[in-house]
Amino acid sequence: MNLKRIRNHHLPIHRLLILSFEGDIYMAEVQIHDRKFLVLNDKDNKPRVFPSLASVRDAFDGLAVCDTEHVHYSAYDEMIGLRSHDSESMGQKDFYPINSQNLH
Question: Which of 13, 17, 1, 99 is CA-nearest to residue 63?
């Protein structure tokens, strides 16, 4: 789902997950009601990549975001031999709660 659609339909975001990958790559996933959506580009509907946390904050400015979390993915576990689908692997999420008021 793209931000234009969220803004146009005044959809409430129950949870915003900021997905952080190695090399300053950020993506966003939103939970609206009981469904999760990866945030897509407005133009081509491909996954939107943000260059910084500040750019995520700016993109969601003015939207109704109830809860925000920063999720960091690390390739370290995969590099030391753990499989990527293990619970203790690259897919493991480290959650860093972010106060929604501090996001704006």
Answer: 13
Average pLDDT over every residue of 54-61: 94
From residue 42, alpha-carbon distances to 45, 46, 68, 98 in Å are: 6, 8, 22, 25
pTM summary value: 0.71
State the Cα–Cα distance between residues 104 and 100, nearest whole angstrom: 7
| Total number of residues shown for the chain | 104
Residue of 1, 14, 23 lying closest to 63 (CA atoms): 14
Q: In angstroms, rounded to a whole number, what is the distance separating the alpha carbons of residues 83 and 76?
A: 11
Q: Which helix (H) or strand (E) holds 28?
A: strand 25-32
3-class SS of residue 56:
helix
